[in-house]
């Protein structure tokens, strides 16, 4: 029985990885200049050390190579990384709060991250410190402080009121968004970048932005790897988990930190892209079940696929004009949130 489950999980992960690769290739091929899919595959394969010797010389494809490796591929990879971060953060917050409506965007954490990143640009702090870019770090601090504020506002007699949490998240998020708007008014030089955060867009993405976030996401996943079993035990109830040796309160704080790290890194490069952390974990949980050993990696892969597709739609549907991807995700996410409210009847 256990072996059957492991085989099923492996098939799910392999299937999602294959679908992610195909989605990535499709996204890179689409744009103002259409790139033939098979030529694109050969050109990318020619850059892979293990297989480039098997590929014929790709001379004459300099323009295509420039479009792929300097424009589209970094953007698509960044969309995948941001999708991974937001979907994983949503999964962690939903597990922590035992509610499918918990999402970094809805409970205000994304707004805190946006404020931190905006302050970083205004203060000209966009530099690296020991391989870590400061902007995602400031976004992480903003997200973490917001998470603890919202969490403590919703906490009463060691219990979390989900209704209070959602209302506190909306209120705190609105307050922080107002501060970001004030920063826009008083800082004309940084207005373009701050508008970028508030709308959610990957339009200015490049290899620098990819380098800014991947290390933060890897650190978060190393921590998550050691938490998966404890997350499963919490599904039995906090008292049962406590009796089995899980430090529940300590685990909650770690989850808040990791979720904030993921949210901060995503917002630092993509702005306020909402609802991915709401839609993806909820749907994936229905398909693969609540076991976090499969739920978290599956949500990450589906999050990457979802944001690649929505970003591709955002930049191609009315090309050459581009729609901020945050608008596209909101068009999917807001009705889904209302559906959850309707079916749950209560928050």
Can you give a write-up of this model?
A two-stranded antiparallel sheet has the order 1-2. Strands 3-4 form a two-stranded antiparallel ribbon. It has 14 helices and four strands. It has one domain: ABC transporter involved in vitamin B12 uptake, BtuC. By secondary structure, it is mainly alpha-helical.
Comma- or semicolon-separated keywords:
347 residues, mainly alpha, two-stranded antiparallel ribbon, 4 strands, ABC_transptr_permease_BtuC, transmembrane transporter activity, transport, membrane
> Which structural class do the helices and strands define?
mainly alpha
Name given to the CATH homologous superfamily: ABC transporter involved in vitamin B12 uptake, BtuC
Low-confidence stretches: none
CATH architecture classification name: Orthogonal Bundle
User: Biggest sheet: strands side by side, in what order?
Assistant: 1-2
CATH top level class name: Mainly Alpha
- Kindly identify the CATH topology: ABC transporter involved in vitamin B12 uptake, BtuC
Q: Could you tell me the mean pLDDT?
A: 84
Number of domains: 1
| Outline | globular
Please work out how many helical segments DSSP would assign. 14
Largest sheet: 2 strands, antiparallel
Strand content: under 5%
Total strands: the figure is 4
Radius of gyration: 21 Å
What is the rounded distance between the termini? 36 Å
The helix/strand series, from N terminus to C terminus, equals HHHHEEHEEHHHHHHHHH
Query: What fraction, in percent, of the residue positions are helical?
Result: over 70%
Organism: Orenia marismortui
Membrane topology: Multi-pass membrane protein
Main location: membrane
Keywords: Cell membrane, Membrane, Transmembrane, Transmembrane helix, Transport
